[in-house]
Structure formats: C-alpha cells, structure tokens
Sequence to fold (226 residues):
Amino acid sequence: MCPFCYIGKRRFEKALNQLPEKENIEVIWKSFQLNPELKTDPSKNINQYLSEVKGMSLERAEQMSKQVSEMAAAEGLHFELNKAIIANSMNAHRFLHFALSKNKQDEAEEELFKAYFTEGKNTDDSDILINLGKNIGLEESELKEVLESDHFTDDVRSDIYESQQLGVRGVPFFVFDRKYAVSGAQETAVFLQNLNKSVAEWKNEQAGKELQVDEGAVCRPDGECD
Fold:
C-alpha cells in the first residue's frame, strides 16, 4: 500500500544488480501492516481516502498522488493512483508468505505492487490474489485453500512483532544481515553502499571461521607419509 515501498524496491534492485555477489544474496520480504483495522472499500480510491482521513481537499490529495507518480516514473514505474482501491492488507501478506514457502515471494511482491498501484485491483479479493498467484506459477487449489483459512496469519503477526523489536516505525525499511538498515526509498547509491559493506563484513567473518593450519609431516588415510 505504500508507494515508497515500490519505489524503494526498484532502487534496491538497481543496487543489487551492480553487486558482483548478487547470486549469493537472499532477499526476504517481511510483513508490516499499514492501518491493520482498515476496512476494504472498492468504491474508494486512494485520493478519496486521503482526502477523508487527512482532512484535505480532493484536489490536494490528487496533487500529492501526482508528485509520487512522477517520482515513481523516474524509476520506470507507472502509477495509476486514481485507480488504487482501499484494501486491508492481511490477505495480501498471507499470500506473500505462501509464495515464500514456494520460493516465489519476490515475484509475488512484484505482482501485488503492480496490481495495486498500476492496475487498480482489489488486493484483498481472493479471486484477484489467486489470479496473481497463477501468473507466477503458484498452484491454484493450494492458494485457494490458504486464503479460505487463517494459514500464515501467525507468520504475518510474527513479522510485525519482529519489526517492533527492531524499532521499525515506517516502511520501506531494509535490513542488511541484521547489522545495517536503510529507512525510506533512498537513492540507489545508499543501498549499494550498505550491500557492499554487509558483504565485505560477512566475507571477513567467514574467513575468520576457517581453520588456520601450520603444515608439518603427516600420514594420510592412503598409508602414505611425508
């Protein structure tokens, strides 16, 4: 639901693509609910919602959305915020956890962002989520079973609790090896700096775990000695 999360995702990806160790980096998306008590209302778009809850004119809300859309366009994203449907995000987060269990989470995240910010789809609707899942190769019957139950609800809540322990107060929020963090949709260079720093420290730690051996005369399992 946060436009800066989609923008931040793109900037992070641009940094990741510049990293020689890209293939060794594991990215996990964590749940963080904005307004958990929000009631899904397909009759309202985000501009109408902001106008009501922020006490601003509709024109002012539309102007804010335009500014954010221009920021997104600079990252190659096309926003249609006048179509974005107000929707509770719990089911979308459960969908993401199911996708994680199938090693499809990043693809699922991208599908959700596009559905919400560009296509004006109701991301609280089970049929919509099932179709998004089919787009990335998730099994329809399994996903349907998940959405008709409370599966992965505890996983969502666990992520939210974890974020509270880390002191996260807003999103996007990127944590690198549980040592460094970037708050907000910062420039690509900031992400790259933190990626390089984290990878370098990780390599040093791994090197420190290797057994340092002073070589001498030994006998080997094949019976040979030297």
